[in-house]
């Protein structure tokens, strides 16, 4: 079992602590949080060992799980990597692209593994259909959330939209050609609503909308490709696949048949993949342990986390133009 320690015991940090303790791939050694009074309350309530410094925690573990505010990701990861520790870093990987590139280089130089916490990759609604997504040419995503003061220290692009950026980059096997975007600050000092259009070199277009001041929550993405439409509801954990195939000579009584202007007939088929319930955070942590133990590339590598951040910052740069 890998010895693991958590940096940061806020809302998400406490979830990571609980799941690491439950996992059969890790031995939870303890945690560190700079808020001494709060950290002691967490230690007293749950019985986790509280370290008195970041360095003492890093020295005691094999894997450092970084669940701190984004601004501190770089310093925490740099410290851990330089001591030869593997790092799991919550999204976004770092605050700036330069920091992300430096972390990626450090990890390579010190021969350690790193994974970024883009948890939607492990959402069962997405994993059920990801192998069906083949060369999508139009993608539309909506990630809407009710207002929550937590996370408003960064633009909505880094808070919410980056989830969908990562998902899209994982399925579109082409380089980004151009980006246009707009954002509006309504309550926060940074944009609360944003829309972005990403055009890829292969012709695929992705249209992303994110809001953190909506009246209801929504996390849906739709993928359109040749002869297929795939819908993923990340919030409700549901998926639907609509396929079009050449219509048979004699279709069934209830078959849905479409005919185009050239007279070609297609039959529509509906599929609702079976969704296997899971805990996506536990799955991503366990997958990282597997990558370390098997010496393989993590499912969400530091490189992929860096590319998601790169696109996110290009979107944010559009706001000031």
From TrEMBL:
GO MF term set: nucleotide binding
Extract the InterPro entries matched here. Answer: Gfo/Idh/MocA-like_OxRdtase_N, Gfo/Idh/MocA_Oxidoreductases, GFO_IDH_MocA-like_dom, NAD(P)-bd_dom_sf
Q: Where is the GFO/IDH/MocA-like oxidoreductase domain?
A: 156-217
- Annotated ranges, domain Gfo/Idh/MocA-like oxidoreductase N-terminal: 3-118
* Coiled coil (UniProt feature): none
Listed name of the protein: Putative dehydrogenase
From which source organism is this entry?
Tenacibaculum skagerrakense
Taxonomic classification, please?
Bacteria, Pseudomonadati, Bacteroidota, Flavobacteriia, Flavobacteriales
């Amino acid at each position: 079992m890998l010895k693991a320690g958590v940096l940061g015991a806020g809302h998400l940090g406490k979830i990571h602590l609980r799941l690491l303790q439950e996992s059969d791939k890790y031995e939870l050694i303890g945690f560190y949080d700079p808020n001494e009074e709060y950290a002691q309350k967490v230690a007293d309530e749950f019985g986790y060992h509280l370290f008195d410094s970041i360095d003492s925690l890093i020295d005691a573990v094999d894997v450092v799980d970084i669940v701190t505010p984004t601004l501190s990701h770089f310093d925490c990861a740099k410290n851990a990597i330089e001591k030869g520790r593997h790092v799991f870093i919550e999204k976004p990987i770092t605050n700036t692209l330069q920091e992300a590139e430096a972390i990626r280089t450090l990890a390579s130089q010190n021969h350690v593994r790193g994974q970024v916490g883009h948890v939607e990759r492990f959402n069962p609604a997405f994993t059920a259909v990801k192998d069906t997504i083949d060369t999508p040419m139009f993608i539309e995503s909506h990630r809407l959330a009710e207002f929550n003061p937590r996370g408003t220290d960064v633009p909505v692009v880094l808070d919410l939209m980056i989830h969908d950026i990562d998902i899209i980059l994982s399925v579109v096997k082409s380089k980004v050609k151009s980006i246009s975007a707009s954002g509006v600050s309504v309550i926060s000092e940074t944009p609360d609503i944003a829309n972005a259009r990403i055009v890829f070199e292969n012709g695929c277009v992705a249209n992303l909308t994110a809001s953190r001041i909506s009246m209801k929550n929504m996390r849906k993405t739709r993928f359109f490709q040749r002869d297929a439409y795939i819908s993923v509801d990340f919030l409700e954990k549901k998926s639907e696949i609509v396929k079009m195939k050449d219509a048979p000579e004699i279709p069934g009584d209830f078959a849905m048949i479409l005919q185009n202007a050239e007279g070609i007939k297609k039959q529509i088929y509906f599929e609702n993949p079976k969704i296997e319930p899971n805990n996506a955070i536990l799955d991503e942590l366990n997958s990282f342990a597997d990558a370390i133990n098997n010496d393989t590339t993590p499912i969400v590598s530091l490189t992929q986390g860096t590319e998601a951040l790169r696109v996110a910052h290009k979107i944010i740069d559009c706001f000031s133009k």
